Amino acid sequence: MRDARPGSLAIIDYMQLLDQDRRKPEIAVQIEALRSFAAQTGVIFVLLSQIDRSWDATGKPFPDMADVRLPNPVPFAAFSRACFLHDGEIRLDVASA
User: Could you read off the pLDDT of 12-67 as tens digits, one per residue?
Assistant: First the structure.
């Protein structure tokens, strides 16, 4: 991706896999490295994630950052936007913890 033009899109399918290989840095370190790389190069990263099974659509129509399924903490401040999909609808938010 070092040679990618600003505005290029990189998609990481299943963010939780970044946390699976214990030989790699913890997920928070990897996310910060991606954020820094994006800031330096203009590459846009999209990280797809699962929502925790405890989220209940009857309590709120869309999940939010608190519902992202994570085995270990992630610095959500590293993300600029969040997009949630549910039941054919979409909601865009500013990312925050």
Answer: 888 877 887 778 888 888 989 999 999 999 999 998 888 988 999 888 889 988 89
Phi, psi dihedral angles at 31 (to 5 degrees): -65, -45
Residues 6+ apart with CB under 8 A from 51: 63, 67, 68, 69, 84
Task: Quote the tokens at residue 80.
Answer: 């600029």
